Amino acid sequence: MKRSHYLSIAILLIITLLSLPSCRKNDESGKKSKTPMASQRGGTIVCGTISDMDSFNDCTANGIFTVQVLRRLYLRLMEEGPDFEKQPPTFHPLLAQSWEFSDDRKEVTFHLRKDVLWSDGIPVTAHDVRFTWQAQTSPEVAWSARSSKEFITDVQAVGNHTVRFKFSRAYAYQLIDINEGVILPKHAFEKVPFSEWRKHNFLKEHVTNGPFKIKRYEPQQSVELERNEDYFDRGKPYLDRIVFRIVPDQAALLMQFLSENIDVMEAIPPKDAKKVEEKSDLVLDVKSMPNYTYIGWNAENPLFKNPRVRRALTMAIDRQEIVDSFLYGFGEVSKSPIISTFWAHNKNIEPWPFDPAAAKRILEEEGWKDSDGDGWIDRNGTRFEFELTTNAGNKLREDVLVKVQYYLQRIGIKINPRLLEMPVFIDRNLNHQFDAYIGNWRVGTKVDLKQIFHSSAIPKRGYNVVSYSNSEVDDLIDRTRTMEDIMEQKPLWDRIQEIIHEDQPYTFLFESKRVNGFNRRIQGVNMGINDTYLNLHEWWIAEPKRKE
Question: Which of 234, 311, 440, 501 has its CA 20 to 30 A from that of 72?
C-alpha cells in the first residue's frame, strides 16, 4: 500500500518452484546462473516501473518505488544485514563507521565517516543527522514513519562527525529505529520551512550523498540517475546511468521487458512468469515477499462491527482456491499479520476453513437471512450489501476482487466492486471512507503492530484504517515495546495473533512471492526482499553487452 517502514516485520523463505525450470532462475540461496566475471565500469540500464516519484524528500515520500530510488541517492547511518529471521537484524557501517551504547543502553554514539560529501561538495556532518531527526519528528512534516523515533528524546551533534542518540528507555529495536530513514542535507533542505515540506517536491534542492545522483526527471515519463563520481566507496557504482522508465500499465510493461526494451521489471504477474523463463536472455528472480494481501473490514460500518460476522465472511471465501488460481505456486494462504516465516509468527494458528455452510449459519444466528426471497440476506429491512474497493491497474487484486464477489454472493451477500486510482484509494482508506477494501502490506524487519492494530492508530489518517480496537491487544503491543530481550516478546506476540485471528479485523488472504526479472546482460544483481535495487551500485555490464 505504502512504504514499508511503518509496517514492521520481515522474512525470507526458501522457495521451491517444482513447476518451473530452474536453470535461469535466481533463488533465495543466492545462487545465480553464472559466476560473475570481474566487475567493469560503464553502461546504462533501463528499469521499468508502473509508478512515478511522489517526492524527492524521504520525509514526504510515500510510494515504495520512490523510497527505493531515494535510497540510491541518500545514505543511511548503517546497512542492515539479512539475518533477521531469528533475531533483530545486525548492522554494518555505512555513513557511520562505528557506534557504541552507553552502559544503561539509553544512549548510542555514532562516529561518522569524514570522507562523505554532499554532491555540492559540502561535507556530511553530525548536524545533518540532527536536522534529519528534527524533520522526521516534526508534526508539521508528519513523516509516515515518525513512530520509529518515539523513544528518541534527543539527537546531539557532539562534534562535526560524532552524533549521540538519547532514548527514554532501552529496548530491543533501538538500532532499527535509529536507522529508519535516510540522512538529509541540512544546508539545502532547511531553506524550506517544515510547514512547507508537504507542498514541495525538493527537486531543486536535490543535494545527495549516495552512489547515484539525479540526472533528469520527466514527470510520468522517466527518472534518470547518473553515477556519483565522488561517492566515498571509490570505484562504485559501476554503471554510468540508470533510467527508470514509467509505464503505468503492467501488461505493457511486461511486453517491453519480454522484447528487451527494458532490462529490469518488478512484480511480474505470476501467470506470466513462464513467459520470462522461456526467454533465454532473461532471468527470473524469485524471493519470498515480506508482505500479505488482505481484505480490510471497516469496523465503523455496522455490517462489520461484529467479529463473528467477520469470521463468517472469511470462512465464506475459498482462499486456497484464490492462491491456486492467481499465484501459480508463488504464494500461500495467510493467517496472521506476522508472516509465516518470521520468528514471531504463531505457528499454532490454523487458517479459518473454507466452510460456506458454517458461514451462512453464523450469519443466520446474527439475524442475517433472506427474508423476502430476493436471493440476498437482510436484517431489519437492510440488505447485506457493501462496496469493495481496490486500486485500479493491479490485475491480481482486481481478479481477487471478482473472486471474493463470487464467493460472498453464494451466501447471499451483495458486493458492489469499485476500482480506484491509487492516490484516491490511499486517501479514502486513510480517511476511513470505505466499507471494505483489498490491500497489501509490505512489512519491515521490526515486529511492531502498533501502527496497524493499536487503538491509538485509529484517528483520522492513522494507519489502523479499519478502526480495530481490542484493549488486550493494545496492552500486549505496548508491553512488547518496552522489552529489552526480544525473545521474551514471543509469548505476547503469540497471544496477539490468537486474538486477531479470532477477531478477524482483516481477512488474511495470502502471502505471495516476489517475482522480478532482469536481463542476463546485467551482472552482480542481488535483489533484496524489500528493496529490488538494494545493491544497484554493484550491478555492472560487460562492455560487449552494453546498449546506449
Answer: 440
User: Is the pLDDT assigned to residue 185 strictly greater than 60?
Assistant: yes
Q: Which residues pair with 297 in a beta bridge?
A: 436
* Total Cβ atoms within 10 A of residue 192: 15
DSSP-assigned letter for residue 489: G
Sheet architecture: strand order including 96-101 = 96-101, 107-112, 162-167, 152-159
Q: First CA to last CA across the chain, in angstroms? A: 35
Res 149 pLDDT > 90: yes
Quote the strand ranges of 104-251, DSSP E.
107-112, 152-159, 162-167, 212-218, 222-227, 241-246
Q: Is the Cβ–Cβ distance between 372 and 382 less than 8 Å?
A: no
Which conformational region is residue 376 in: left (phi greater than 0), alpha (psi within -120 to 50 degrees), or beta? Answer: beta
Residue 249 has pLDDT above 50, yes or no: yes
β-pairing, 282-288 with 264-265? unpaired
Binned at pLDDT 50, 70 and 90, residue 84 comes out as low
pLDDT at 28: 44
> Taking a C-beta distance cutoff of 8 angstroms, is the pair 508, 327 a contact?
no
d(CA 358, CA 444): 36
Q: What is the largest distance, in Å, between two alpha-carbon atoms of the chain?
A: 77
Contact present, 64 and 291 (Cβ < 8 Å): no
CA distance 77 to 253: 35
Segment 392-411 mean pLDDT: 93
CA distances from 260 to 249, 281, 532 (A): 17, 9, 19
Spatial contact of 205 and 188, defined as CB atoms under 8 Å apart: yes
Closest to 132 in 3D by CA, of 70, 58, 196? 58
- Residue 146 CA to residue 141 CA, distance in Å, equals 10
| DSSP H helical ranges for 356-506 | 356-365, 395-410, 422-430, 450-453, 471-480, 490-503
Q: CB 285: neighbour CB atoms within 10 A?
A: 22
